[in-house]
Amino acid sequence: MQSLPLIAVTELAHADPARRHAAAAKLGRASREVGFFLVAEHSVPRATIDAAFADARAFFAQPLADKQRLSIKRSPHNRGYVAMADERLDPRAGFDRKEAFNLGLELDANDPDIVAGIPFRGLNFWPTTLPGWRERMLGYFDHCLELGRLIHRGFAIDLGLDEQFFAPHLTAPIATLRLLHYPAAIQAGRHDAGAGEHTDYGDLTLLATDGVPGLEVRSRDGEWLEVPSIPGTYVCNIGDCLMRWSNDVYLSTPHRVRAPTQERYSIAFFMEPNPETLIDPRQIAPDQAPRYAPIHCADYLKQRLDATYQHRAGS
Questions:
Q1: Where's the Fe2OG dioxygenase domain (predicted)?
Q2: What residue ranges define each of the domains in the chain, with the CATH number in brackets?
Q3: Between these two residues, 253 and 185, which has the higher pLDDT value?
């Protein structure tokens, strides 16, 4: 997909306002016109990314019984292991042929939000037989969190807001680091067996891939286009929450993962605002008639996840 712009996001933190605004304008164009872009010159070390992929392979190589002990079905907070066929991103097409592992913001069991039962404020599940795994994953999580905050700074500049508009809403966000494993398809039964056609639920997705193709994006004229894998870059896209918050100024674009012909791994970082943040289009586009009613971030995310997982139905 040659039309995805490549954005050097370190420019968003440059001391020169003109440099920041130029990078933000490029980011804004991509967010309005495509909903996808490539991020280059970010601050996540290559060695950290490589270690995260090695840890993902090690996790998924464990016996199924060990992974199932960390099942997402044990967590109301979207944490843990998602087994093959547990997820259906496009319910019309059936279950996805992939497995995943989710972790979120690391909190102590005595954290007031956990004690109070705040939605999406839960304990992470950790494998006990992989030395150093927890520490490396949390380090990677923190790098992605800072990158996501920086990109939100660019959104604020582009939207004509105060540069720090999003900062108070990203102090302790509902951020999910998701490891993904797609086994090689023998007889997948459908083109998008890896992950059905969908849009992402949050504000922003940062995706690192292992170079194996599979991700496809639907263009505005309905054509499915393959997203390239460029070493050292993140594939990023706008999610439904930010599209809603921006009153459709930014676009959340449908995408899918086709059944890979060889084993494929990817690592996604989904960034939503703090649970209590009110997603109200009037905050970002006060001169426009709002297309959406205000809703708290945690309530919106719950609605979307309940429709994705059978075990959450009626929760």
A1: 173-273
A2: 6-312 (2.60.120.330)
A3: 253
